[in-house]
Specification:
Peripla_BP_I; about 45% helix; six-stranded mixed β-sheet; alpha/beta; signal; globular; Rossmann fold; 10 strands; about 350 residues
Length: about 350
């Protein structure tokens, strides 16, 4: 009930209740799969937001295949009888520029979330009058900061003991992966009692990270810190530790990013020492901003929305995540934190 009331306040005070404002038609190109832990959470909160805000939302999944994502966009543009008003993109493996090239002949607003194009690319596009109107500000969590914060959490758990560190990144090109890993690497580099052994790329896969961890635990028998860029890779690491007879949280400390039910439970059990998360809210926040932009032609400030943070198991937000309480998350973590004005 409170979520519905807040939505009514939002729609009325923001000026969306009038008949003059058409219902938003949004297509989100999700680079993940329907059953991905992180990308599924992005979907669920966006669906909650779209229902609450009366937005028509279509989600198209590319199953971690950025070439497929580009093809899906081209197919939509070629076959749709009516094109959407807005498209939400993720710059997965630097795919966004090709997608923007395909979109450039069309009067469709483009919102990038989670992984942006580079500053230079954006500046170049904004020389074009078309993109001055249709390329909207990106909503990007601070991946560098969460990489650093999760690394710090691991060092805190060691309580001053020497750290022999392995980094398992996602991939070499996706901006979120690059920045998270750089944040962690820089933090460990600045610690006198930390030695960074190697950085490998687990391709966001538990199976790949499992194999890498097995190999590197043999290569570095005194390894006691493993930082991972996502939950699936952390789960692969935990499997490797178990096979090696090592206890996570005692012999080797593991951190990760993302908030799947499995990883939340593992953190409560102290198998995972540090979790960073919240960035799954970027898609739902984007829908709120698009709704606001429809009338006001600018975004509402969202400085108070925490898109990334280290999560504590005894926090209210953590409990909402465990319960998968999407209405409460949307209300308390997004709507309640935006400065709506009449």
């Amino acid at each position: 009930m409170r979520s519905w009331m807040l939505a009514c306040v939002f729609i009325c005070t923001a000026g969306f209740g009038g008949a003059a404002w058409a219902k938003l038609d949004v297509v989100f190109f999700n680079p993940g799969a329907v059953d991905d832990s992180f990308w599924g959470d992005v979907d669920q909160l966006m669906l909650e937001a779209s229902t609450t805000l009366n937005i028509k939302l279509e989600i198209i999944h590319s199953d971690r295949n950025h070439f497929k994502m580009i093809t899906q966009l081209n197919e939509l543009l070629a076959s749709a009888k009516v094109l959407p008003n807005y498209v939400i993109l993720v710059n997965e493996k630097q795919s966004a520029i090709k997608m923007l090239q395909a979109l450039s002949p069309h009067p469709i607003y483009v919102q990038l979330i989670l992984n942006d194009i580079s500053i230079g690319e954006r500046d170049a596009l904004l020389q074009d009058p078309h993109w001055q109107e249709y390329l909207l500000p990106a909503i990007i969590p601070d991946n560098y900061a969460i990489g650093s914060a999760t690394a710090k959490g691991l060092m805190d758990d060691l309580e001053g003991k020497p750290a022999k560190v392995l980094l398992i990144s996602g991939d070499k090109s996706t901006p979120a992966s690059v920045l998270r890993t750089q944040g962690a690497s820089d933090y460990f580099f600045m610690q006198a009692n930390a030695t960074l052994t190697q950085t490998v790329y687990g391709q966001w896969s538990d199976a790949v990270a499992y194999g890498q961890a097995l190999t590197l635990l043999n290569r570095y028998p005194d390894l006691n810190v493993i930082w991972t860029a996502s939950d699936r890779m952390a789960i692969g690491v935990l499997k490797a530790l178990k096979e090696k007879g090592l206890v996570s949280g005692k012999d080797v400390f593991v951190s990760t990013i993302n908030t799947s039910p499995e990883i939340l439970q593992l953190c409560r059990q102290h198998s995972v020492s540090i979790i960073g998360g919240g960035h799954f809210m970027a898609g739902a926040l984007a829908l709120v901003e698009l709704k606001y932009y429809q009338q006001h032609k600018h975004y509402i400030p969202y400085d108070n929305v925490t898109l990334f943070g280290v999560l504590l198991p005894d926090s209210a937000f953590y409990q909402m995540l465990v319960a998968r309480d999407w209405p409460q998350i949307f209300q308390s973590q997004i709507l309640n934190k935006l400065p709506f004005k009449a």
